[in-house]
Design brief:
The complex is a heterodimer of chains A (about 375) and B (about 550). By secondary structure, chain A is mainly alpha-helical. Chain A has one domain (about 10-365). Chain A is built from 14 helices and 4 strands. In chain A, a hairpin with a 2-residue loop joins β2 (about 195) and β3 (about 200). In chain A, α1 packs antiparallel against α7, α2 runs parallel beside α7 (about 205-230) and α2 packs across α11 (about 290-305). With about 550 residues, chain B is mainly alpha-helical. The chains are: A mainly alpha (about 375), B mainly alpha (about 550).
Chain lengths: ~375, ~550
């Protein structure tokens, strides 16, 4: 694809700061956990390391949504599906690693299959004993689904809210499917009771720190990849598609291929985030497919500031920290707060926290990062007539 | 079976005085026989039962029924046979022959007459035989059904006698069914069994089918086996036909629910283009309004409870519509032309509304009582049962839809709505207050969602999550039918309902729903504008 011809700019102040911060967290938190004695105020307890690792996975997930929504105008309300699929792929590997240490002590079958009286492993579980195969699947399954979905959707020019609604229907359908016991993914309970990963005990502090560092590295790599894409010529075309899809098409660009390309990349990133998330929380179940989860991802991006990449990461951390705090301290307030956040951000902070801070710093000198929403102004005048 | 017994008992109580008056002549004879029931030996009891049944006495059925129900007991003091009916802690005693009340007694003063299962079977058959000749057609029919179950060949002469003098067509039908079933099971002559099988072929119910299936396996005679197989084939064809009809009804019923849930969205999303993710919560508010109205009616005017649902319809419209206008004025107004932002803001709103309702009414389900005119069912043969609440919801959804169409096409308000959606600036130039029309239109769509909530409160759990279950389906219906097209919503709702119900038997409910979702996703790829795509310049969005 010729779009990569121009030299992408990886430098720039926000990129440098973001990467430095990720590196600082990725190195600092394990050091504070290992070197500082538990009594000290600076000590980071192991549970906190896992919690932060979870946030980093959310950050990567938010990044993947920002890539398509912020830069290409594709609002996917089903990105949780790719995250969950990546998570399930990893979960299947971890289930195979349990071996005969399950409740039923069956080395051939996971516990839930023994419970359901299954005689042999379904074909799609084969291969998950191998970590390398799992890594491939973590990326291939979400990528393939995104390719199929995007192939059909973008070629027939399903855009805007229609795409949002069918992507939501997609994750809803997957949720219903994974709730079924006959699917062979543990039904309602999902996959859990994992023992170890690559021979390391998942409960051990060292493993948790290792997973945390892996999440930080993945987030940094994801950020570099996104940054590479959006600053390349491909990124310019994507922004053009976002702001004026028809005009870009008339200029001779095959809009659907650009969209498809970035959609698949985004889905793979979400899958990787899911795969790193599962060993850290120790469970994956069908509720990860719930449409509400996917919409929540979008609000992380919106809060942070879409179309900025680092804003998405920041938004994921902020909202999830608030969620952890509020659901612990005053649980009944959390949904009010989340709902109010949705409304307040769309009404008063269209560019998110990052956008608001940036325009506050720059004053009136700089132009806005995003001009107009995807779909553009004036849409209401050209609507289909009633009846 | 229980229903049959209860019904027989009910008829018995009603007919009691009449029976008591007519039977004096043979009283002494019957009295001796009834005393025989008190014997300790089961064989003796069996003989007494047969004799009582054979006596032809009009009171015999009542006595035997009391025996099978365990009401026939003996008083310990004087060994007198009584019929004891529980009344609070004590029992009211009646004389089994005259039916006259003869005092009360505690449980300890009575000794029940013990019967075993063999006697119970014998009793059922005997009662069936006796009531086959009852003057009440309902009782004759239930007796015929009882015989159909026991298939006691000794009752065949009674059955034939009853058939000969039966005048009511539907009872005759049941009698013939019982007679054929008995002959099929017991007749010595293969020709009689073949004739019985041919008679049974005209019926279409599960009992006849299982009877035929069972006898086709045990049948020795080749010709008879063939006749039974043919009859079974006919019955199964007819059952399959009824099954299809049942599916059609359930599909239409589901379609009407989808239509109710989606028709408000067809206004806000279809006509105005506003993505209202809080639409489901408007439905939920309507359902809670129904609950509140019901509690108010219970508190202040309990006699009107049957009509509280009707009062709730305008109330739900006003509540949901009012909140809709409020939402439009405070949030959506500022987001026109930014559909994705509208989607996010209204999603946030839906979370707030859910949590508000949860805080006020609690997270558990609230019970909305169905009015008496909505409960019950019409039973049509072949196991097809149409419940009244489903029928009312179908009717109601069509009424709401028709009113909405009339409003949109024939009223000044509808004209203004269409003018504003077709060309906002021109409409403004003609003096229409477009902002006001927007607010009213959104209120209308939300109000209709509220009305849908009233209907859904009758068939679904009224909980804060009520709306979430409908939001994705509603959007699917509107998008499938074609955005901006009310007729498309109607067709979309009913076709999705029917497809869903016809897939269910083959794939199970959940998988069927998944298939439908995937099919719609593929359909939208093929026809992004829905079934009824707008044509001409309007299509170029």
């Amino acid at each position: 694809m010729g779009a990569f011809a121009s030299r992408p700019r990886l430098s720039g102040l926000p990129a440098a700061i973001t990467l430095a911060l990720i590196a600082a967290v990725g190195i600092g938190v394990p050091l504070l956990n290992l070197l500082v004695p538990p009594g000290s105020a600076l000590h980071v307890p192991t549970y906190m390391v896992s919690l932060l690792g979870k946030y980093l996975c959310y950050g990567l997930l938010a990044l993947s949504v920002d890539l398509i929504w912020g830069y290409c105008g594709i609002l996917s309300l089903g990105h949780g599906a790719f995250f969950a699929l990546g998570g399930y792929a990893m979960g299947m590997h971890l289930m195979r690693q349990i071996g005969d240490r399950g409740v039923y002590g069956n080395a051939e079958l996971p516990d839930f299959m023994v419970f359901l009286n299954w005689k042999e492993l379904p074909w799609y579980w084969h291969g998950f004993d191998s970590f390398a195969f799992t890594v491939v699947m973590v990326m291939a399954v979400p990528g393939l689904l995104a390719f199929l979905f995007g192939w059909f959707a973008f070629r027939s020019r399903v855009t805007g809210v229609y795409l949002s609604i069918i992507s939501q229907a997609l994750t809803f359908a997957l949720m219903l499917a994974f709730f079924r016991n006959d699917m062979g993914f543990g039904g309602n309970n999902g996959l859990t009771d994992f023992k170890d990963i690559l021979g390391f005990n998942l409960q051990a502090d060292g493993t948790r720190i290792g997973l945390f560092v892996a999440s930080a590295i993945a987030l940094a790599l994801g950020y570099v990849l996104c940054r590479f894409i959006v600053t390349s010529r491909l990124g310019k075309v994507l922004v053009a598609v976002r702001d004026a899809e028809s005009r870009t098409r008339f200029l001779g660009y095959r809009v659907e291929y650009y969209k498809l390309c970035v959609f698949v990349v985004s889905a793979i990133m979400a899958g990787v985030a899911g795969a790193l998330y599962v060993p850290q929380v120790g469970i994956i179940n069908p509720s990860e497919f719930a449409p509400a989860n996917s919409i929540e991802i979008v609000i992380w991006v919106a809060v942070g500031g879409r179309g900025t990449l680092h804003g998405a990461i920041l938004g994921a951390l902020l909202v999830n920290y608030a969620k952890s705090y509020l659901t612990g301290a005053i649980p009944e307030v959390w949904l009010f707060a989340l709902g109010a956040l949705f409304i307040a951000v769309t009404l008063f902070l269209p560019k998110g926290v990052v956008g608001a801070v940036a325009s506050g710093l720059r004053g009136r000198r700089a132009g806005p990062a995003i001009t107009g929403g995807p779909g553009g102004a004036g849409e209401r005048t050209s609507e289909a007539p009633a009846e | 079976m229980i229903a049959v017994t209860l019904r027989a008992l009910f008829c018995l109580l009603v007919a009691w005085p009449l029976l008591a008056a007519s039977g004096q002549a043979v009283a002494d004879d019957l009295e001796a026989l009834v005393a025989g029931l008190g014997s300790n030996s089961f064989a003796e009891k069996a003989r007494a039962i047969d004799a009582i049944a054979a006596s032809g006495d009009p009171r015999a059925a009542a006595i035997l029924e009391a025996l099978v129900d365990g009401d026939l007991q003996t008083r310990r003091d004087d060994d007198r046979m009584v019929i004891a009916e529980a009344k609070g802690r004590t029992y009211v005693l009646r004389d089994p022959l005259s039916g006259a009340e003869i005092g009360e007694a505690g449980r300890a003063e009575l000794r029940p007459i013990i019967i075993n299962n063999r006697l119970r079977g014998q009793l059922r058959g005997a009662i069936g035989g006796l009531t086959l000749l009852s003057p009440d057609p309902g009782r004759r029919a239930s007796a015929a059904d009882a015989v159909f179950v026991t298939r006691d060949p000794e009752l065949l002469p009674v059955l034939d006698k009853a058939l000969a003098r039966e005048s009511e067509g539907w009872v005759r039908d049941r009698l013939e069914r019982a007679a054929a079933a008995t002959r099929l099971a017991a007749a010595e002559d293969p020709a009689a069994r073949i004739a019985a099988a041919r008679t049974l072929a005209h019926y279409a119910d599960q009992d006849v089918r299982s009877l035929l299936t069972a006898s086709s396996q045990s049948e020795q005679d080749a010709d008879a086996r063939e006749a039974i197989a043919a009859a079974l084939g006919q019955v199964e064809t007819r059952l399959a036909l009824w099954g299809v009809l049942a599916n059609v009804f359930q599909g239409i019923s589901l379609g009407s629910v989808l239509l109710l849930a989606a028709v408000g969205l067809a206004i806000t999303f279809g006509v105005m283009g506003v993505i209202n993710m809080a639409h489901g919560e408007m439905v939920m508010l309507g359902a809670y309004t129904t609950f509140v109205i019901q509690q108010l009616v219970l508190a202040y005017a309990p006699d009107w409870l049957n009509w509280s649902v009707l009062i709730a319809i305008p109330a739900a419209f006003v509540v949901a519509g009012g909140i809709g206008i409020l939402i439009e004025q405070s949030i959506i107004r500022f987001l026109y032309g930014r559909p994705l932002e509208t989607l996010l803001a209204t999603w946030g709103l839906s979370l707030i509304l859910q949590q508000t309702v949860r805080t006020i009414f609690g997270p558990s389900n609230r019970e909305v009582i169905s009015p008496s005119w909505m409960s019950g069912a019409i039973e049509i043969s072949g196991g097809l049962t149409l419940t009244y609440n489903r029928i009312w919801i179908i009717v109601f959804s069509l009424i709401v839809f028709t009113l909405l169409i009339v409003l949109m096409r024939r009223s000044g308000f509808g004209l203004r709505i269409r003018a504003v959606t077709q060309n906002r600036r021109m409409a403004g130039a003609m003096g229409i207050r477009t902002g006001r029309v927007d607010a009213m239109t959104f209120g209308l769509g939300s109000g209709i969602a509220g009305i849908a909530g009233v209907a859904l409160s009758q068939i679904d759990n009224v909980s804060p999550n009520l709306g979430q279950g409908y939001i994705i389906d509603s959007f699917m219906v509107v998008v499938f039918g074609g955005v901006g097209n009310l007729m498309g919503t109607l067709v979309g709702a009913f076709s999705l309902g029917l497809v869903n119900k016809f897939l269910e038997p083959y794939s199970g409910a959940v998988l069927g729903k998944i298939f439908v979702l995937v099919a719609i996703i593929l359909f939208i790829q093929k026809r992004p504008q829905g079934i009824f795509a707008p044509k001409g310049r309007a299509a170029e969005t």
